[in-house]
């Protein structure tokens, strides 16, 4: 796991966008895994700028989102399919229909989850997955106690996640749905490269557990320690509880230029 501590969201955006651009350069038909939430916005904004200026294109690429609230009406602005369209997809040049998400309005939820797994598999799997992390250590919406071998399924959101996400629902925690569909931890682990972004002091404990804690369903993100290619992009505040912070900084400073992330 590579831990990179950067100055601010703008630097995180640039490093993350470099990785996506390099992938699209060598594989224009790449499959991207797209998180919603605040953390990846700097990367999406930077990619939108580069797409505008013609240095990167998503024309041949495909995308899969991580998760979806159950039961939000199709036109609800916080439905993740609408969120990803607004913050990223409509700002770049994906082909129509190239980005999909799990169907939180499906009548048969288990069938919709199985179909989503099959769609990812049929697309050849995710080449690069962008992730955020919850304050309780979730990735996608795999809350504490999630099976480390889980696949796409329905989950109940923790109170803490609903409180954290109330900011997207006018501060009203009761407006945040109680259930979601989420890619499982085993699903996420099948991506070739994972880039996890975390900023701010409120993420510091979850980041410490992710990087330095024991692998445990209590901190689901710790399963990433088993993946051979994970890049963690942090600002100083999110890194403040890391025991080996000086080592991570030194490693990045002295990293061979040819290595990439
Ligand atoms: C959303 C997702 C979640 C978020 C996490 C952090 O698709 O997968 O795991 O990444 O809740 O959210 P933010 O980035 O808003 O702090």
Explain what this protein looks like in three dimensions:
This protein has helices at 9-26, 41-52, 80-87, 109-122, 159-165, 185-189, 204-212, 245-253, and strands spanning 2-6, 31-34, 62-65, 67-69, 99-100, 128-131, 153-156, 179-182, 193-198, 230-235. The chain is an alpha/beta fold and 261 residues long. It has a single domain (2-255), classed as Rossmann fold (3-Layer(aba) Sandwich), CATH 3.40.50.1360. It has a seven-stranded parallel β-sheet, sandwiched between helices. Strands 4-8-7 form a three-stranded antiparallel β-sheet. The structure holds fructose -6-phosphate (F6R). The site of fructose -6-phosphate has 13 residues, from loops. The active site is at 67 (proton acceptor), 136 (for ring-opening step), 138 (proton acceptor), 143 (for ring-opening step). Keywords: Allosteric enzyme, Carbohydrate metabolism, Hydrolase. It catalyses: alpha-D-glucosamine 6-phosphate + H2O = beta-D-fructose 6-phosphate + NH4(+).
Draw up the topology in text.
Layout: E1 2-6, H1 9-26, E2 31-34, H2 41-52, E3 62-65, E4 67-69, H3 80-87, E5 99-100, H4 109-122, E6 128-131, E7 153-156, H5 159-165, E8 179-182, H6 185-189, E9 193-198, H7 204-212, E10 230-235, H8 245-253
Keywords: Allosteric enzyme, Carbohydrate metabolism, Hydrolase
GO biological process, one term: carbohydrate metabolic process
Protein name: Glucosamine-6-phosphate deaminase
CATH class: Alpha Beta
Order of helices and strands: EHEHEEHEHEEHEHEHEH
Largest sheet: 7 strands, parallel
Query: What is the name of the CATH topology?
Result: Rossmann fold
Q: Give the ligands present.
A: fructose -6-phosphate
**How much of the polypeptide forms β-strand, as a percent range?**
15-25%
Q: Measured on Cα atoms, how large is the radius of gyration?
A: 17 Å
Count of all domains? 1
Mean pLDDT: 98
Intertermini distance: 10 Å
Number of strands: 10
Q: What is the share of helical residues?
A: 25-40%
Task: Tell me, briefly, the overall form.
Answer: globular
Strand order of the largest sheet: 1-10-9-6-2-3-5
| CATH architectural arrangement | 3-Layer(aba) Sandwich
Give me the number of helical elements.
8
SSE class: alpha/beta
- Which residues form runs of ≥5 with pLDDT under 50? none
């Amino acid at each position: 796991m590579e831990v990179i501590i950067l100055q601010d969201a703008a630097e995180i955006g640039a490093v993350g966008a470099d990785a996506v651009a390099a992938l699209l350069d060598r594989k224009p038909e790449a499959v991207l895994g797209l998180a919603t939430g605040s953390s990846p916005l700097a990367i999406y904004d930077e990619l939108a700028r580069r797409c505008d200026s013609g240095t990167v294109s998503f024309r041949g690429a495909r995308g899969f989102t991580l998760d979806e609230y159950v039961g939000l009406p199709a036109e609800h602005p916080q439905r993740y399919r609408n969120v990803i369209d607004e913050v990223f997809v409509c700002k770049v040049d994906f082909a129509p229909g190239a980005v999909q998400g799990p169907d939180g309005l499906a009548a048969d939820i288990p069938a919709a989850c199985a179909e989503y797994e099959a769609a990812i598999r049929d697309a050849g799997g995710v080449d690069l997955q962008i992730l955020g992390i919850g304050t309780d250590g979730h990735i996608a919406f795999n809350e504490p106690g999630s099976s480390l071998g889980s696949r796409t399924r329905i989950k109940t959101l923790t109170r803490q996640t609903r409180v954290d996400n109330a900011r997207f629902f006018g501060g009203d925690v009761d407006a945040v749905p109680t259930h979601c569909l989420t890619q499982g931890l085993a699903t996420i682990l099948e991506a070739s490269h994972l880039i996890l972004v975390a900023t701010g002091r409120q993420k510091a404990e979850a980041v410490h557990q992710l990087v330095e804690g024991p692998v445990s369903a209590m901190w689901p993100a710790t399963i990433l320690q088993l993946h051979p290619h994970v890049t963690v992009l942090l600002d100083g505040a999110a890194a403040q509880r890391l025991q080996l912070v000086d080592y991570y900084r030194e490693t990045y400073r002295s990293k061979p230029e040819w290595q990439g992330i």
